[in-house]
Amino acid sequence: MIFVTVGTQEPFDRLIKAIDELAAVVEEQIVVQAFESSYKVKNVEVCDFLSPSEFDKLFFKARLIVSHAGMGTVITALTHNKPVIIMPRIARLGEHRNEHQLATAAMLKEMGYVYVVDNEINLVNVLMELLQRDEIKPLHRIGKYASDSLIKSISDFLKSK
């Protein structure tokens, strides 16, 4: 199962339409959590609101997460060893208030933490490639807690003040 989550602040029709069109040609259940959309889906189940427990159930059941470049989803995926594809919202297309998701995506791509796509065609291509695999592995994993080196760095910084 693929779980697609785009947050609840703004519609993300570009991503939803690409996922819906892909769903017509793949044999994989796709569940979408999305804020209201002007695009009317035909091939996927859409939930506009999920309780935290419903969200977690779908998130942990999924073998792949597709998301906007929201750090909450990215961090949850990385701490729970879930592969994630992100497609940043673009403010100039009316998908967000500013272009911070482009910067977030660029940083995560440079770090090699997640699959990053910049448009619908690349999203479908990466999804098709990954769905051919028996197992989709995450590109990176992070711990649930701060590393000893991070704690030491913060502690040293605070002691110096």
Automatic annotation (TrEMBL):
<keyword id="KW-0328">Glycosyltransferase</keyword>
<dbReference type="GO" id="GO:0016758">
    <property type="term" value="F:hexosyltransferase activity"/>
</dbReference>
<keyword id="KW-0256">Endoplasmic reticulum</keyword>
<dbReference type="InterPro" id="IPR039042">
    <property type="entry name" value="Alg13-like"/>
</dbReference>
<protein>
    <recommendedName>
        <fullName>Glycosyl transferase family 28 C-terminal domain-containing protein</fullName>
    </recommendedName>
</protein>
<keyword id="KW-0808">Transferase</keyword>
<comment type="similarity">
    <text>Belongs to the glycosyltransferase 28 family.</text>
</comment>
<dbReference type="Pfam" id="PF04101">
    <property type="entry name" value="Glyco_tran_28_C"/>
</dbReference>
<dbReference type="GO" id="GO:0006488">
    <property type="term" value="P:dolichol-linked oligosaccharide biosynthetic process"/>
</dbReference>
<feature type="domain" description="Glycosyl transferase family 28 C-terminal">
    <location>
        <begin position="1"/>
        <end position="134"/>
    </location>
</feature>
<dbReference type="InterPro" id="IPR007235">
    <property type="entry name" value="Glyco_trans_28_C"/>
</dbReference>
